[in-house]
Write a structure and sequence with these properties.
CATH topology of the largest domain: Zincin-like
CATH class of the largest domain: Alpha Beta
Largest sheet: 5 strands, mixed
Number of domains: 4
CATH architecture of the largest domain: 2-Layer Sandwich
Number of strands: 24
Strand content: 25-35%
Length: 512
């Protein structure tokens, strides 16, 4: 009752750099083909609805219970199609793009949600990265037990994927549609070689997915905002990266990665985090200009990694080889930590002021000698007569503290960092360190105790594999753990009061 047909015909290899680029099949690799014009006729039962790459030119009834659908597509390098008698069709439009949604009957309640996500994707890509070059987009909802066809991308035709009753706060539908539509830019419009440089489509697409999800559904909880749980898309990908951050360099041929898991991390999550970190370093406006320039320069061409780097360096007006050498071509780990902080009161100095003063020619005396000739009372010397400055009062009023912060670089990846130092009187100091050395020591004399120190206080460096060592406080902080514990106990109490849970526990108790 449901067919999705992709990778169904022999593809001509790409003639590039004076040779034919035609790789054999590899389980981890995806696609690489050249642009062309497709005229395709698809014959199916009359009651079937068809969706395909390109534009439907005509439908011809054959008089034998079948119909032939004629599709035409220009300047595409792949063609896929789907058919089912069960599809429920919805249509919408945004900007200059017609949207067609082919939904499963049990998901019709999510039609508006699918269309809204498609409109969000189209609008953001056109506004940020340049015109979508096709007049239409078809979004397909796979049938149950055919989820393997979900989350796939073809020119003007993408598949999503949802479940019955999926809560609105779990934005899996939105994330998949934004991601798969993005492939109409990163892979279809800019036809990089997925066999040899898989990060250039999946990774760049993950980066733009992160940005669009946060702009449309953020700033907090853009991926999950459900029952008090808030998770951002960038944190999902960062979590994926930090579990295996150093198995391989990011840029490799698809079949050369250590494992399928390493292929996934280095093709999707790591480049998404790398480019988000780069955006935080250069600024959002500069990064958007970089991406738009990249699209304009390489539309309907086959860019390589170095082409992307060249655009970044040109638009940013600086040589960022130091960044790309580490992030793209090595497996170096980035990890900066606050290793130690301390603060103590500076004790009041004791003794006399032995400043020499010349009173007469060839006669030298000290304040101490003159003080010894002065009658003492219970309050000490008469400072007005001796000339000794009375500092006791000011010292009582102003306590001084000596404080220190030690920062360490624990990984091989070198990156500029900021350090925020907070004092008890509310003063906040921001320090900058180029991050080149193995450590950095900061020392302060201030009229207030040190309270805390944080490296990367704005969490801009998503490549940092360990956020838990990024800060220290003089006093132990229990607010966070108390909040999480209270939330955990609340949900435990809630679940234990549900009849279904009680019945399950009773049954398990009888069994065991």
């Amino acid at each position: 009752e449901y067919f999705f047909v992709g990778q169904w015909f022999p593809k001509i290899g790409v003639y590039i750099d004076g040779r034919w680029n035609c790789h054999q099949f590899h389980a981890n690799s995806e696609f690489f083909a050249d642009f062309g014009v497709y005229n395709v006729r698809i014959t199916v039962p009359e009651e079937n609805i068809v969706g395909a790459t390109g534009i439907e030119v005509e439908v011809k009834e054959n008089g034998d219970g079948t119909a032939t659908h004629f599709y035409h597509a220009e300047d595409v390098h792949d063609f896929a199609w789907t058919t089912s008698p069960e599809f429920v069709e919805f249509k919408d439009k945004t900007q200059d793009v017609e949207i067609r949604l082919l939904l499963q009957p049990d998901h019709v309640g999510q039609a508006r949600r699918h269309l809204a996500a498609a409109k969000t994707a189209i609008e953001h890509f056109q506004n940020w990265y340049g015109d979508y070059p096709f007049p239409n987009l078809t979004v397909v909802d796979p049938r149950r037990k055919a989820k393997g066809s979900g989350g796939m991308e073809y020119p003007t035709l993408i598949t999503a994927g949802t479940s019955y009753g999926l809560p609105k706060g779990i934005r899996a539908v939105e994330m998949v549609i934004v991601h798969e539509f993005g492939h109409n830019y990163w892979y279809h419009l800019l036809a990089s070689n997925e066999f040899e440089e898989s990060w250039m489509d999946e990774g760049i697409n993950t980066y733009t997915e992160i940005q669009i999800m946060n702009d449309a559904y953020g700033p907090v909880g853009d991926a999950v905002d459900f029952m008090g749980i808030k998770i951002n898309d960038r944190h999902v990908h960062r979590a994926s990266y930090i579990f295996s951050p150093d198995l391989d360099p990011m840029v490799r041929k698809a079949w050369e990665y250590y494992s399928g898991g390493s292929y996934g991390v280095n093709s999707y999550s790591k480049p998404g985090i790398v480019l988000t970190t780069l955006q935080n370093y250069l600024g959002k406006e500069t990064m958007q200009k970089i991406m738009r320039t990249y699209v304009e320069r390489w539309r309907f061409k086959h860019p390589k990694t170095q082409d992307f780097i060249d655009v970044v360096n040109e638009v940013a007006e600086q040589d960022l080889s130091w960044f790309f050498d580490q992030a793209f071509f090595s497996n170096a780990i980035l990890d900066y930590s606050v290793d130690r902080i301390f603060t103590w009161k500076i004790k009041k100095p004791r003794g006399f002021d032995f400043t020499l003063q010349v009173e007469k020619k060839d006669t030298i005396s000290t304040n101490a000698e003159r003080a010894s000739n002065t009658s003492l009372n219970s309050e000490g010397p008469d400072t007005a007569k001796t000339g000794i400055p009375d500092t006791s009062k000011s010292q009582k009023e102003t306590k001084m503290y000596y404080s220190g912060v030690n920062i360490r670089r624990l990984g091989e990846f070198k990156f500029p960092v900021e350090i925020e130092v907070v004092f008890a009187n509310g003063d906040t100091v921001r320090e900058k360190w180029d991050g080149q050395g193995l450590w950095k020591k900061l020392r302060y004399k201030k009229p207030a105790r040190l309270v805390s120190a944080t490296v990367d206080p704005d969490s801009k460096i998503l490549l940092d594999v360990n956020f838990t060592n990024n800060s220290k406080t003089i006093k132990k902080q229990r607010l966070g753990i108390n909040k999480l514990s209270a939330r955990f106990l609340f949900w435990m109490q809630f679940l234990l009061e549900q009849p279904e849970v009680l019945n399950l526990l009773t049954m398990l108790n009888r069994v065991f």
